[in-house]
Automatic annotation (TrEMBL):
Pfam families: OTCace, OTCace_N
Pathway, per record: Amino-acid biosynthesis; L-arginine biosynthesis; L-arginine from L-ornithine and carbamoyl phosphate: step 1/3
NCBIfam families named in the record: orni_carb_tr, PRK00779.1
Cellular localisation: Cytoplasm
PANTHER family in the record: ORNITHINE CARBAMOYLTRANSFERASE, MITOCHONDRIAL (PTHR45753), ORNITHINE TRANSCARBAMYLASE, MITOCHONDRIAL (PTHR45753:SF3)
Swiss-Prot/TrEMBL keywords: Cytoplasm, Transferase
One GO MF term attached to the UniProt entry: ornithine carbamoyltransferase activity
GO biological process, one term: citrulline biosynthetic process
GO-annotated cellular components: cytoplasm
Record-given protein name: Ornithine carbamoyltransferase
Lineage, highest ranks first: Bacteria, Bacillati, Actinomycetota, Actinomycetes, Micrococcales
Amino acid sequence: MTRHLLRDDDLTPAEQAEIIDLAIALKKDRWKLKPLEGPQTVAVIFDKSSTRTRVSFAVGIADLGGSPLIISTANSQLGGKETPSDTARVLERQVAAIVWRTYAQAGLEEMARGTTVPVVNALSDDFHPCQLLADLLTIREHKGELKGLTLTFFGDGTSNMGHSYVLAGVTAGMHVRIASPVAYAPRADVVADAERIAESTGGSVTLFTDPDEAAVGSDVVVTDTWVSMGKEEEKAQRLSDLGRYKVTTETMALAASDAIFIHCLPADRGYEVDADVIDGPQSVVWDEAENRLHAQKALLVWLLRQQ
């Protein structure tokens, strides 16, 4: 059966750990594995602008011996006349895998149903599982383990990052806190899915409206932009609603003394995070950005092995 990564809980706890272990190995020996040697081609499709996703997948596919085929939906039939499933049936005869950075989760699910090659969600409106693999890799590098750590996300819990932290965090056995206004809490179905996973991993999900209360004792402090792509018209309202959830030096002082700060980037310094934090000694955002490369290479290797 073809395996895909469309949302974080497509991986079991053991599978998630296996991919992170593989990412650590590939980071130590970058050209160790060449499963795409030939070169085989991987289609990397973009509906949205990108820096880290575009670079890390293109470089990673090349590292694995393959050739990245970068496709913009604005210049393809997928952007208009053709359905995701029809596009998938065309691509599967020519490529080893499909990576798609898009808007609607439903499009990814349709594409995955229509193909026999792995489909990877490189970001959707609902989830960002590739980013979470990189984040978990980064946390493990700096903390030595994941299980039992407390990770607190500040800001828009309805975002793809909020949802992915909830699912991937509990899969790793972490205690995930979401600090947000009630109207920005993660979707109830995502929280329910995470709670089911937590029953077997020992993790947990807790929703807070008080950012200071949520920060106390946190091992990992996280935030993301308050104005995601497609939400630009809501900027003024979002800045007003989320202002008290900015990560500041005071926030970090409430966290554990050895807490680390992560942010998937790009960052709006002065909005969701102060410059003193993201550019400070507890920030590991540049390690996190690099780890997109290693985590995604590991994911592709793992998915291809399932074929």
